[in-house]
Amino acid sequence: MPSRLTRRSLIAAAASAAALLGLAAMPASAEMLDVEKDELKFGFIKLTDMAPLAVAYEKGYFEDEGLFVTLEAQANWKVLLDRVIDGQLDGAHMLAGQPLAATIGFGTEAHIITPFSMDLNGNGITVSNEIWAQMKEHIPHEDGKPVHPISAAALKPVVEKYKADGKPFNMGMVFPVSTHNYELRYWLAAGGLKPGYYSPDNVSGQIDADVLLSVTPPPQMPATMEAGTIYGYCVGEPWNQQAVFKGIGVPVITDYEIWKNNPEKVFGITAEFAEKYPNTTLALTKALIRAAIWLDENDNANRPEAVKILSQSNYVGADYDVIANSMTGTFEYEKGDKREVPDFNVFFRYFATYPYYSDAVWYLSQMRRWGQIAEAKPDSWYDDVAKKVYRPDIYMAAAKMLVEEGNAPEDGFPWDTDGYRTPQSEFIDGVTYDGRKPNEYLTQFEIGLKDAQTVTSTGVSE
Asked: Which fold has domain 7-121+264-355+391-412?
């Protein structure tokens, strides 16, 4: 960490960042920014990781920045993205893959950026009681409880039996470019199961698949599994814990166990919005950072209040106890098997809100691994796309102002980073990820596209 910045150097640094952004000159004190648009509407999906938006609204952080915000739940991720693109929403809680996919033209094409990463971790993979009973035969136990993390290798014989009986094995995820899709695929492939490929002519994602993945909106996951349409799913909270409370399924693994402290949602706006309303963009980023700080400060002391906020019907709308099961430092797997997972939801610590280029590159690497990016790209392409979409320059300008105002701790931000994390190896399969070398990263996987491979109607061609 650099030495503690003086008031003058902080203001100068923030002003310099503003100049790089094309922002209006920043005030030399904690005065409110002269926002270009003060009435805003933001969208979200009913998940606990929308918490920074709810907290920024309820604690008055938006108003502190001169912003009068309306928060509105959306029906699904596609509707949410479309409404940001067409201007019905000024911004939204988004899947990290959405701004990236839209910008490269996979699905709806539009230049979306993110100045703020909303959280780390927060997802789980749940299977029905019937599937869990079959998996348990292949899982080691200690003191009568399953040993975690649970590998998809325990699911493989179950899937093979279904295939032998001529039955498709169906699982749900929330959107084709969702973290949940990539985490579920990662877990399945690490356990020796093929989750299927995409091609330009077939966007089902089910080419050459052992497990057939399809889209289900998050709040509908438990009911869809209960109806037997899917045998399991990957989703954010509280919809894994809801299955436990309803007695219809068992979460077998969290994304924290698949990839420790993995990046999750982002806050997305159009590039046009950021260019047209630079001070507004900076102000909303400041408010969201303050909300993230509040959510994590004093060892999560504010989480019970946050759970109370989220349980309101206009936000997540699940029961207090269901949301609290994962938001307050624990996670319940099989009914009664509640374990300490203090970092299941992280909103600020570990630089959770900083939009790292390497996080963007990981999502792009998974799009390539499963055929959503049909042809090989050089490492430089991944870097270029990441820098087009992820905007740490905006984030750091906001952070500098908050520190100068006394509203954020100076040690809460990675001032010296170049936007890339050091190589990470805490994945369930032990593979090391270096965001600077995505093509080398992809060669380490037995299942998935690498080098110049492409997808045909039947599978992978060399």
From this structure: D-Maltodextrin-Binding Protein; domain 2 (3.40.190)
